[in-house]
From TrEMBL:
Belongs to the peptidase A1 family. GO terms for molecular function: aspartic-type endopeptidase activity. Pfam families: Asp. It comes from Talaromyces rugulosus. It comes from the Eukaryota. One of its GO terms (biological process) is proteolysis. InterPro entries: Aspartic_peptidase_A1, Aspartic_peptidase_AS, PEPTIDASE_A1, Peptidase_aspartic_dom_sf. Keywords: Aspartyl protease, Hydrolase, Protease, Signal. This is Peptidase A1 domain-containing protein. Residues 1-19 form the signal peptide.
Length: 380
């Protein structure tokens, strides 16, 4: 989920203490990434589909912070690692449903960053703030000592200000330029991890069940089939700062390109829906008989076969420029009668690839170039 920062920054400060010791053996690490859905969602136990809820969760991983386990969500749309903590009020701690709260007083590796704080607000109105600190962060064996992170002492919910959290916080895997620690922005987990791994990449194979994973520091050629498509990432362009964003995607189906203007597309694993323009949605649902549209919320007759959807990346630097996802990935539920919704929704401005794209592709996120490569998952 993209964060909204009140102050534009261009400086990324990486602490000298993060340099890897000389002679270290660099190795890649695979960590399990389980799908979660908000506790308020209606979930089909057989298919894992989420009904009538476009805040349909994402992927979570167990993380050791100073040896204490917390549950964080993987978010390529933000750039902070922060966690709920015992610095929060007891009432706020009670709204975190994981049952895991980080306690800095119980860690021998916790170091305060005097004068440094973090403060985040997300697009849905929620947010978090508190002191920044250094700590040993371990994700499935991928370990960074003295990693800068946020220790939440104030948790904010959108809407009427009440709510609950199904995770302790995020692992932000965007770019450090959008890190919220002040007065100096810090490295993201992947940027901090770079000295310890063979390549400056992480790779994802997200699933709708608990068999997904993230590879830190390498890509696995056996995890995908066919040719990789590689696209440039416009993470420094106006409006896309710090984001995994591609400029100028088009859409189509069955080899035909929709008559709709190209627009920018985010690859934000913290946002569930495939977000497209009104023209793209109209062209797609026009291929299905019996669809209806209410203020950009499209429905189709349950039981109908949804056509495959083509993404056209005209400025791809290698591989096929047209990438297809199965229409079945767009289904939100599996009812056979009545009207059904999908994971596609209508937005103005930038779109988002969403769950339908992520669950069909093995994705290699190269933050050094930067570029994004993907091909069909081999085990789908």
């Amino acid at each position: 989920m993209a964060a909204i920062l009140s102050t534009a920054v261009s400086l990324l400060l990486v602490s000298e203490s993060l340099a890897a010791p000389s002679g270290i053996q660099k190795r890649g690490i695979r960590s399990a990434a389980h799908r979660y859905v908000p506790s308020r969602a209606a979930v089909d136990n057989e298919t894992g589909a989420v009904y009538n809820n476009f805040d349909g969760g994402g992927w979570i991983i167990p993380v050791l912070i100073g040896g204490q386990q917390v549950t964080l969500n993987l978010d390529t749309g933000s750039s902070d690692l922060w966690t709920a903590s015992t610095l929060m009020s007891s009432d706020s701690q009670a709204t975190v449903t994981t049952g895991e709260i980080y306690d800095p007083s119980n860690s021998s590796t916790y170091q305060a960053m005097d004068g440094s704080t973090f403060d985040l607000e997300y697009a849905d109105g929620s947010g978090a703030s508190g002191p920044a600190a250094l700590e040993t962060i371990n994700i499935g064996g991928a370990t960074v000592p003295n990693m800068p992170f946020g220790v939440c002492d104030t948790l904010k919910y959108g809407g009427d200000g009440t709510g609950t959290r199904d995770t302790d916080g995020p692992v932000g895997l965007g770019f450090g330029v959008e890190n919220s620690i002040r007065p100096n922005p810090q490295c993201t987990f992947m940027e901090c991890l770079e000295p310890y791994v063979p390549e400056p990449v992480f790779s994802t194979s997200f699933k709708t069940n608990n068999s997904g994973y993230i590879d830190f520091g390498y890509s696995d050629s056996s995890a995908y089939s066919g040719d990789l498509t590689t696209i440039p990432i416009a993470n420094t362009s106006s409006g896309n700062e710090g984001q995994w964003a591609y400029q100028g995607v088009q859409f189509g189906s069955g080899g035909n390109v929709f008559d709709a203007a190209a627009f920018d597309l985010d690859f934000d694993s913290g946002t569930s829906s495939l977000s497209v323009s009104a023209d793209v949605a109209s062209a797609y649902f026009g291929l299905i008989q019996g669809t209806s549209n209410s203020s950009g919320s499209w429905q189709y007759p349950c039981g109908s076969t949804l056509p495959d959807l083509d993404f056209i990346f005209s400025s791809a630097t290698s591989g096929p420029t047209t990438v297809t996802i199965p229409g079945a990935n767009l289904k939100n539920g599996d009812a056979s009668t009545g009207d059904c919704g999908t994971w596609m929704n209508v937005v103005t401005g930038r779109g988002n690839a969403g769950i339908p794209f992520y669950i069909s592709k093995y994705m290699i996120w190269n933050q050094a170039v930067p570029e994004l490569s993907f091909a069909d998952q081999a085990d789908n």
